[in-house]
Specification:
Helix content of chain B: 10-25%
Number of helices of chain A: 5
Distance between the termini of chain B: 23 Å
Order of helices and strands of chain B: EHHHEEEE
Number of strands of chain B: 5
Number of domains of chain A: 1
Largest interface: A-B, 46 and 46 residues
Structural class of chain B: alpha+beta
Strand order of the largest sheet of chain B: 1-3-4-5-2
Number of domains of chain B: 1
CATH topology of chain B: Thiol Ester Dehydrase, Chain A
Low-confidence stretches of chain A: none
Strand content of chain A: 25-35%
Shape of chain A: elongated
Largest sheet of chain B: 5 strands, antiparallel
Order of helices and strands of chain A: HEHHHHEEEEE
Distance between the termini of chain A: 37 Å
CATH architecture of chain B: Roll
Number of helices of chain B: 3
Radius of gyration of chain B: 18 Å
Strand content of chain B: 25-35%
Number of strands of chain A: 6
Structural class of chain A: alpha+beta
Oligomer: heterodimer
CATH superfamily of chain B: Hotdog Thioesterase
Chain lengths: ~180, ~160
């Protein structure tokens, strides 16, 4: 049974709603990455710079909430790794499946639950939620897809949920933004 | 910590406008933000890749770094007791070096949930200005932020059913 041009191929449709790539980070949460993010955004929130404030409000240091995704991002290189190490494998699988060489993220939702703390070891899993039919934008022709990610700490506490909308595309001849 | 930096839920009204935040975006802004979030994708540090492969004007701010800028904008306003519960943003256009980036925000709703947590909903626009690219609204964000209802309330202390982001 084949799919029409506006439909989602069966092999892709079969992945919708299925948790994929469950994995645990290869390193612990550490404060230095929070400070890097704070420096990159010139964020002086004393919750992250003043231990007395952190002790009072959060019972000790926590990670900057919007660093949630970085704890599951692989090292750029590590011994034994071959090729580019990517963070959101489902996104790259879809690029390859649809032969779409370029991609951008268009939407992001983050829901923050139990704060992430230095020393935590974060795990996640990726769930494909939807794939659109073929679309054309100013970037080129391709498809949109939505991927959810659930993050837990080593105590199995939910620390956050993210949803990304990605747009994989092929630049049209003479096109491009 | 009932200091002047503590924004209380009862002092916020629908229509309140947050203090604007303006930032001159440089290549360092983009690269620093990408590397801080462990985003090694080349469109956030390699000009040739961004222009020739992605077909955009330059390297551009990555998604997690935009989230971090929204967080900073919100908590500049709330102070450290403010706890972001949720944010949703749409990136309609890219933020490039050379852009002047301005965050503007307006309170769209306030409520207290069944657990007694005080919430405000804020709509944020990330606008840019540039001599050649003109004025653009690059991203729009809706955020749900918990604020203390009284001076000794602490949204960060909420767990389980008492935290409903």
């Amino acid at each position: 049974m084949s799919s029409g041009p506006d439909e989602v191929p069966e092999d892709v449709a079969a992945l919708i709603g299925v948790p994929q790539y469950p994995s645990t980070a290869s390193f612990d949460v550490e404060r230095s990455y929070s400070w890097n993010t704070l420096a990159a955004t010139q964020n002086g929130n004393p919750l992250f710079w003043d231990d007395a404030v952190a002790d009072e409000l959060t019972g000790g240091p926590i990670a900057v909430p919007t660093t949630l995704s970085l704890w599951m991002r692989p090292h750029y290189w590590e011994p034994g790794a071959a090729g580019e190490q990517v963070a959101l494998q489902v996104h790259f699988d879809l690029k390859e499946r649809f032969d779409l060489p370029e991609a951008v993220m268009t939407d992001n939702t983050i829901i923050f639950h139990t704060p992430v703390r230095p020393g935590d070891r974060i795990s996640h899993r990726q769930v494909l939620r939807s794939v659109s039919g073929p679309k054309t934008t100013k970037l080129g022709s391709g498809r949109f897809w939505v991927i959810d990610i659930e993050y837990h700490n080593q105590r199995e506490e939910l620390v956050g949920v993210e949803s990304y909308t990605g747009y994989g595309y092929r630049r049209d001849a003479g096109g491009g933004a | 910590m009932s200091d002047p930096e503590t924004l209380l839920h009862g002092s916020v009204q629908v229509g309140d406008v947050l203090p604007e935040l303006t930032v001159e975006v440089t290549p360092t802004t983009v690269v620093l933000g990408a590397l801080a979030s462990r985003d090694w994708r080349p469109m956030h540090h390699d000009h040739a890749f961004a222009t020739e492969r992605n077909g955009v004007a330059d390297i551009f701010l990555n998604t997690p770094n935009q989230a971090a800028w929204f967080e900073r904008f919100l908590t500049d306003w709330t102070g450290p007791r403010g706890r972001v519960g949720r944010m949703t943003f749409r990136m309609r256009d890219s933020v490039f070096p050379g852009d002047t980036m301005t965050f503007v925000g307006t309170v769209t709703a306030t409520d207290v949930d069944s657990a007694g947590c005080g919430w405000v909903e804020v709509d944020v626009e990330l606008r840019t200005a540039h001599d050649q690219r003109g004025d653009r609204v690059c991203s729009t964000c809706s955020a749900r932020v918990a604020l203390p209802t009284v001076s000794d309330d602490n949204p960060w202390s909420r767990t389980g059913d008492r935290w409903q982001p």
